[in-house]
Amino acid sequence: MTISDVLMVIAVICIWSLLLVNVALIIAGYLYYIKTENENVPEIKGEYPFVTIMVPAHNEGVVISKTVESLLALDYPHDRYEIIVINDNSSDNSAELLGRIQSRQPERNLIIINTDAVTGGKGKSNALNIGFTRSRGELIAIYDADNTPERTALRYLVAEIMNDATLGAVIGKFRTRNRDASLLTRFINIETLSFQWMAQAGRWKLFKLCTIPGTNFIMRRSIVESIGGWDVKAIAEDTEISFRIYMMGYRIKFQPKSVTWEQEPQTVKVWFKQRTRWAKGNIYVIVKNIPLLFDRSAAKIRFDILYYLSIYFLLLISLVTSDLLLVLHAMGYVHTTIAGLSSFLWLLAIILFVVGIFVTLTTEKGEMSLSNLWIILLMYVSYCQLWMVVAAYGLYNYLKDVIFKREAKWYKTERY
């Protein structure tokens, strides 16, 4: 075998290993979906616990009013929850809009914290730490500033965590509010259903673990106090705090009936900026937690560490290597005897990709359509390929932050 053959075989093995892992997660997630469809959400026994909902916001004037109004309309007893909006060093009209809502409903527990460049402006984690100092709830819920949760969302999260002492947090599902705005938002909608909530369902079914998604989740106040709040260096504060919850011996459960709707990027430029931030944040968490691979007390979460390592490093390198070798082979610069086999496996991978996602879409009302088949195929050859660029650029930015010791800051996602 030539060196090209060896490299190709290694790349193919790595890609297919991860592909089969994701197939297993989809199958397990689908089984969990069937189970939860036929089950009722637990009832809250006794007095409802007091909950603090925190909304970190930076220049969110376009969406913040709708978000706060939806939180005020939750079907949770109004005297048993408070809403804290951390309007963090905003330069738009957010403070004015929030003030109007507050004045219209003075009887409600709505707290507005307006920070400046001295106290705030240092990222979502810092804003959450500021909000937490004012909180009173025994449970802490987080919603992003562009979210409109369904009326039952909070109650379902609370019911789950109050009925199981082994749970440190419970996460819900988030859906794409503007899915029909562009082809990109249709891609994001499919990605959200397939790689976000179905993968989360699969991981809960197989390992009784999930990763906090950053919005529409609830956690115990005692956990936040024990870990000293959010890591201000972490851009992906959701993934980072998930690992710390794991290490405390708690589990994180996924409750798909708790739903929030969020606005997604409508242009490639905004999407690319958002996703590279996510990639950079997750790489920070991976590097920070690599030592746990050798910690016996972290045995239960090694899958997550290895999974993230594989996605952001092994898969990226394997995809780039295999694609490059196939292109160079077609151009006659290198010769590989397994190019035909690689092409066949590539085609088979596409089929598995399409079938897996289509099965996922059958679990959502309004998503089951044959027209989605061409969207999925187009997504594979465009959207999914852009992921490699996102992961590589995220790694590049992470290394720049490490070298130049840059502080975390708000990375604003444009709203519409």
UniProtKB/TrEMBL annotation:
InterPro entries (alphabetical): Nucleotide-diphossugar_trans (IPR029044)
Transmembrane intervals: 6-33, 305-331, 343-361, 373-396
Protein name per the record: Glycosyltransferase family 2 protein
Organism encoding this protein: Paenibacillus sonchi
Protein's UniProt keywords contain Membrane: yes
Family: Belongs to the glycosyltransferase 2 family.
Keywords: Glycosyltransferase, Membrane, Transferase, Transmembrane, Transmembrane helix
Coiled coil regions in record: none
One Gene Ontology MF term: glycosyltransferase activity
Glycosyltransferase keyword on record: yes
